[in-house]
Design a protein that fits this description.
9 strands, two-stranded antiparallel sheet, single chain, 243 residues, alpha/beta, globular
Amino acid sequence: MWDKWQETVVAAGDQYAKSPVFVEQYSQTSEEFEQVADWIAGWNEPPFDLYGRLRDVNHGARFVCTKAFGPLTRQWLDSNTELWFLNKHGMLKNNILDIGAGYGRLAVSASPYVKDYWCTDGVAVSQKACRMHVDAYVHRGNVHIVSPEELLEWKPKCELAINIHSWNECSFASIAAWLEILVQLKVPYLFTVSHGQLANNNAYICHQVGHPSFRPLLDEKYDLVEELTLGLSSHPYALWRAK
């Protein structure tokens, strides 16, 4: 799977936002975009990503016109939803480790708020795309792209780890290995966003024969702080605290 996706990303060049390794773009209707945009417009504060409504259009992202904000991308809606959840729990001003960071979508949106933001990804071409994206849009010097090997060598001190959708594309054993790395790095909190919906009992499913749930791996090492159904496709957003 990863070899095929790497070929797709390489062929796409700087159009990485439309590659399936990073985002699936056309399953949501315009009405769903409107619903999430209306929810964000109802906050008592402005969106977190003030200037990125069309940022990823430059890199192949679909955009939809909404009443609340005009044209915007799914990526912008996702980033603001994720940042809202983190801010709700007082997590935005921390040092953050993003596992499976993809092309750096959330890193760019979060960079004005965090101390240091560390991006890592087990897919080599993702690291390259992330570096391109971050270099283009982040000028504060607080976003760092490292390989898993460099992560283990440098051992940055982070208060929060993030995994957004990528563990759904990994094996059970791979997810277990990442969780052991978080134990080694002594990261106290974990934020996850999973494919699927809790109501359909298909969230937290990993990519291997039988599609087992990786939720037991999380429950073994973490206590659940809060889990909410949010955003496009009503995915589960969860904050976990290490036991």
